[in-house]
Amino acid sequence: MSEKMSGFFNRVLVKPVLDQVKQGADANGLANTVAAGLIIAVIPVLGITTALCVAVGLKWRLNQPVIQAVNYLLYPVQIILLPVFILLGAKLFGVEPVSFDPKTVFSEFTTDPGLFMSNYGMAGLRACMVWLLISPVLFFITKSISLFFFKKLKIKQEA
């Protein structure tokens, strides 16, 4: 990892988390926050993750700086996973996947915008169904790994 990228990672995720641990944040609460942030960050709907993180963080009293740091850090992952969720959704529902070719997408949009919205809207809903199916498992795995590391970090901080 380049020094510039390492500095960004430290500034955006590691420092906010370490600051919270130093201030006495609970390891279980931080693990829940990281897991929730990850789940929300990869939802296959662009433009809603920040608001969802705020809402979920307030509802379940999660750490806002940490959930937003995880969310922002994983934005590129959301973009990468969007076509994956769409393809898995098409496979799950046994339909033809929508095109990702920019020329085809533009052509479909200009030819029949209503049909375009219908096709791509349904593709988005199917992608969300896949996300809903994998979210509990992903949450459990992320929380377990995070909790392990936060407990280790807590021990080091106390020593």
Quick structural overview:
The chain has 7 helices and no strands.
Q: How would you describe what is shown here?
A:
This protein starts with a helix and ends with a helix. By secondary structure, the chain is mainly α. Helices cover 82% and strands 0% of the residues. The protein has one domain (3-158). It has helices at residues 3-22, 27-41, 49-59, 64-73, 75-93, 102-111, 113-158. Helix 1 packs antiparallel against helix 4, helix 3 packs antiparallel against helix 4 and helix 5 (75-93) crosses helix 7. The relative contact order is 0.14. The mean pLDDT is 90. The chain is built from 7 helices and no strands. The radius of gyration is 19 Å and the shape is elongated.
List the helices and strands and how they pair.
Elements: H1 3-22, H2 27-41, H3 49-59, H4 64-73, H5 75-93, H6 102-111, H7 113-158
The total number of structural domains is 1
Q: What would you call the shape? A: elongated
Query: What percentage of amino acids are in beta strands?
Result: under 5%
* DSSP helical segment count: 7
Question: Which H/E pattern describes the elements?
Answer: HHHHHHH
How far is it from the N-terminal to the C-terminal residue, by CA? 30 Å
As a percent range, the share of helical residues equals over 70%
Largest sheet: none
Number of strands: 0
